[in-house]
Write a structure and sequence with these properties.
single chain, Leucine-rich repeat, LRR (right-handed beta-alpha superhelix), 22-stranded mixed beta sheet, elongated, Toll-like receptor 2, signal
Length: 888
């Protein structure tokens, strides 16, 4: 039987040794427990399994975690190699025999169990745990139950190796009673943050037996008084936390720091005042004992501090690296000009000033931090009376309230000397910072800033060339509304957060010296109009090292095209939650860009320039482009964009492309889904549409051409008439008052009818004294025929047409007839639009062969029929002369 048990254990050990660390094993009779190797320990984890009986674990288990179950009884035996045990949040009742066989235990967590009375019945339960180094036993007790309890004498006297203790703070307890003078305790946590603590008074001698303590926490312990030099016995104390004892008040700080270990590193005095109440002055005497210490971190947050007295900065040690003054009500004052004296300060937190604290607990709090007057000989008095309290609730805008007039004058002088340079050559605003300050938290202060002067940030440290060492600056959630001038002095700035500031204008801002800036957050502002202006391009012109730029939620509608031409090292661009309908920025120089977020804008399609730039960047480092929430147009007009989007090299950088919404031609929105399938479907639709569009376009063009040709043919003579008239009519004839007809008649005839034409001219000119225009005689030499015809008809009162068979066949005769008709109709100089006299020579003329224009003449009243008979000719010619006379 023993052999079988040994074989099983050997098998387990061999397999544990040869397996991967991430693999789980069996280590108990409860299969739900997870068992794994962690460094050299074999851990059994049985948390939150609703166990009521303690599991049986293998003997090679070194760590057991049965936290948060319903266990009430311990096993008869623990594994022999057990070193770590967590039984927190169960129902155990402690007795002397509990850990009798766990002598190798080094870590024991037993928080939130049942402790009956003050633990006297468990006096011997730790006697065998000589190896124990870490003990946490913040038991379940109501605060009222702790007031009259005390610690059992020498409960931990056998725990000579215990270095770390987490325990409840009892009202009448002396923590030193738990130990003998021979102990190794260095870390003591009595806070009520994760337990229950009620220590109304901290007395001298309370830590007499604990001289090796380096870290002491008594936060959330409802402390109301601390005796002077209560911590003088802690000669090795480095970290002291008495925060969140909000009825203790800051007046207790001198009692705490009096004769404190000069080697102290961390002091936490956060929230020593109630949340609600009048604002306070942080007095010189509060820190008068700290000047010779080695203090590195000081917390004075959440104390309603409005102002620091003048010597406070001087009393702070030069070793101070971290100062937390957040969640107060700080206003301007002399102390602002003294911060440069904190030569070792690296981190300054003044965030969350003037917070409303509109929570249910704060609003209905019964906290009372008013000073109760006590006899002066009371050793545990805070040492101050009500008259010592200074209400500075009326301090505003740099006014120093109760300070005398002389101090006010000094304050004004410091303003002029330290902050404003000589205005003879133009003013600037200079702020002197601590020379080693690297991180500044100035967020959520509700301060209003409007930069109306150039800002210069500097130090008074010659060794650094008066340059600041600031690397991180958080100015978010304030009211920094405008930057109209350059900002100088941020030579080492790496991270700048200006988000949530209601900023509307940064057109004049230039971080001229911020060559190292890598992170810039300008989100949640109102920079739409400012960034549209090309003048704003200078704001980013010197940010050569910028890697991360956030301009989301700024109501941007457009951007200046050259805004980011200097951002060669940019890696992340966030322009989400804006109203951009296009992306006008060139990106071909952003070879290091990894992510571009354009989600939730109004972009409908990417331009050819955008597509070329993104394809180029995809071959470098670009990994993600986000267009989710944009109304992408999915019609045949944008098919080239969709086709580009379906390219395998492009699709990989567009994450969540299946979530993109497409707006179709009927304005309905559908998800893209599988981009390849979607594009294939669009391709078929657009191909059909393409043929239809091309066919329709051809038909429309053909129809328009034919219609145009028909119209041109229909009005060909009008067009020709106006063309020639515009060329030939002298300028003097264009005025109606200067125009007169040079000829009474223009004789239009065919060459075969020359004889009858000459007879007519002879009769009209010699007998009738009328002036005729005969083409062979009166046309101007050197001028082309159409121009001569147009000009002659235009200046002739009547046109006499000798119509014959040859006339109707002659091109120039018909030209004269058509031009004459156009001139008769369009000329503004003719009162009588019936300008034609037709002389019809009857030589077997056929009506069906006549031009419609000639037929129109024949139907008029001015048509004279003639024959070849000489007598008839004479009569005809006389009638022509009469018709010409009628219209004189």
């Amino acid at each position: 039987m023993r052999f079988v048990g040994f074989s099983v254990m050997l098998f387990v050990i061999v397999n544990l040794t040869n397996c991967d660390l991430d693999k789980e094993y069996n280590c108990s009779n409860i299969t739900e427990c997870s068992c794994y190797l962690e460094d050299d320990d074999f851990i059994a984890k049985c948390r939150n399994l609703k166990l009521v009986h303690f599991p049986k674990f293998f003997d090679n288990v070194t760590g057991i975690d049965v936290r948060s179950n319903y266990l009430s009884r311990f096993p008869e035996k623990f594994p022999s190699q057990l070193r770590c045990l967590d039984i927190s949040r169960n129902n155990f009742s402690i007795d002397d025999a509990t850990f009798i066989n766990a002598s190798f235990l080094t870590t024991l967590k037993m928080d939130r169990n049942i402790l009956k009375g003050n633990g006297e019945e468990a006096r011997g339960m730790f006697n065998k745990l000589k190896s124990l180094q870490f003990l946490s036993m913040k038991m379940v007790k109501e605060r009222d139950q702790l007031k009259n309890l005390s610690y059992p004498m020498n409960l931990f006297q056998r725990l000579v190796n215990l270095t770390n203790l987490h325990i409840n703070g009892f009202g009448q307890a002396n923590i030193g009673d738990l130990f003998s003078t021979n102990n190794s305790l260095t870390f003591l946590d009595m806070s009520g943050y994760d337990g229950t603590c009620d220590l109304p008074i901290i007395r001298k001698g309370m830590f007499a037996n604990l001289r090796r303590i380096r870290h002491l926490s008594m936060s959330y312990c409802h402390i109301k008084r601390i005796e002077k030099s209560a911590f003088r016995d802690l000669h090795m104390l480095e970290n002291l936390d008495i925060s969140n004892n909000y009825e203790l008040t800051m007046h207790v700080i001198p009692n705490v720091t009096f004769k404190i270990n000069p080697g102290i590193k961390v002091l936490n005095f956060d929230k020593l005042q109630c949340t609600m109440g009048t604002s306070r002055v942080f007095k010189d005497e509060y820190v008068q004992y700290l000047k010779e210490t080695q203090l590195e971190t000081l917390g004075i947050a959440s104390n309603r501090i409005a102002y620091l007295q003048r010597k406070v900065i001087d009393f702070l040690p030069k070793t101070l690296k971290h100062l937390n003054a957040g969640d107060n009500v700080l206003i301007s004052g002399v102390y602002l000009f003294q911060t440069h004296r904190l030569l070792g300060l690296e981190t300054l937190n003044v965030s969350y000033q003037f917070s409303a604290h509109q929570t249910f607990d704060d609003f209905f709090s019964t906290c009372d931090d008013s000073i109760q007057t006590t006899p002066s000989n009371t050793s545990c008095s805070r040492g101050f009376s009500e008259s010592d309290i200074e209400d500075v609730g009326t301090l505003r805008e740099g006014k120093l309230g109760d300070l005398d007039d002389k101090l006010q004058e000094q304050n004004d002088a410091l303003y002029k000397k330290l902050w404003l340079s000589s205005c003879e050559h133009g003013c600037n605003f200079t702020f002197y910072m601590p020379p080693k300050l690297r991180i500044l938290y100035l967020d959520s202060t509700h301060y209003s800033v409007k930069m109306n002067l150039p800002l210069v940030v500097s130090t008074l440290e010659p060794s650094t060339g008066n340059k600041t060492q600031l690397t991180h600056m958080y100015l978010n959630q304030n009211f920094v509304t405008e930057f109209l001038y350059p900002i100088l002095g941020f030579d080492n700035l790496v991270h700048l957060d200006l988000s949530k500031n209601l900023m509307t204008n940064m057109s004049g801002a230039r971080l001229n010296d911020a060559y190292k800036l890598r992170f810039l957050n300008l989100s949640f502002n109102f920079l739409a109009k400012s960034l549209e202006d090309e003048a704003c391009e200078v704001s980013f012109s010197t940010l050569y090292s910028l890697e991360n730029l956030d301009l989301s939620t700024n109501r941007l509608t457009s951007l200046a095209r050259g805004l980011f031409r200097s951002l060669n090292n940019i890696q992340y661009l966030n322009f989400s939650f804006n109203k951009l309908d296009e992306w006008p920025i060139r990106m071909n120089h952003m070879k290091k860009l990894e992510e571009l977020d354009l989600s939730l804008n109004s972009i409908s399609v990417l331009s050819k320039q955008n597509m070329d730039d993104l394809k180029l960047l995809a071959s470098h480092k670009l990994k993600k482009v986000n267009l989710v929430g944009n109304p992408l147009i999915c019609t045949c007009n944008s098919f080239q964009f969709l086709l580009w989007l379906s390219d395998s090299t492009i699709t990989t950088i567009f994450h969540d492309i299946h979530k993109y919404k497409c707006i179709l031609s009927n304005n309905s929105a559908i998800p893209i889904g599988n981009i390849s399938v979607f594009v294939e479907r669009m391709n078929k639709e657009c191909s059909t549409y393409t043929f239809a569009i091309v066919g329709a376009s051809v038909l429309i063009v053909l129809f328009m051409v034919l219609t145009s040709l028909r119209i041109m043919y229909r009005y060909r003579w009008s067009l020709r008439y106006w063309y020639y008239v515009s060329r030939t009519t002298p300028k003097r004839y264009k005025n109606k008052h200067h125009f007169h007809f040079r000829y009474d008649a223009f004789i239009s005839y065919d060459e075969e009818d020359t004889r009858i034409a000459l007879q007519l001219v002879e009769l009209l000119e010699i007998n009738k004294k009328l002036k005729c225009c005969l083409p062979e005689r009166d046309f101007m030499p050197g001028t082309n025929i159409p121009d001569n015809i147009i000009n002659a008809i235009h200046i002739s009162r009547k046109i006499v047409c000798i119509i014959s068979e040859n006339y109707m066949k002659s091109y120039w005769s018909m030209f004269e007839l058509q031009i004459g008709q156009m001139d008769a109709f369009h000329s503004k100089f003719r009162k009588n639009k019936n300008a034609f006299i037709a002389v019809l020579m009857r030589r077997n003329l056929r009506v069906e062969s006549m031009n419609p224009s000639i037929l129109g003449l024949l139907k008029s009243d001015c048509c004279i029929a003639c024959t070849s008979d000489e007598n008839v000719k004479v009569v005809c010619l006389e009638k022509v002369a009469e018709l010409l006379r009628l219209d004189e």
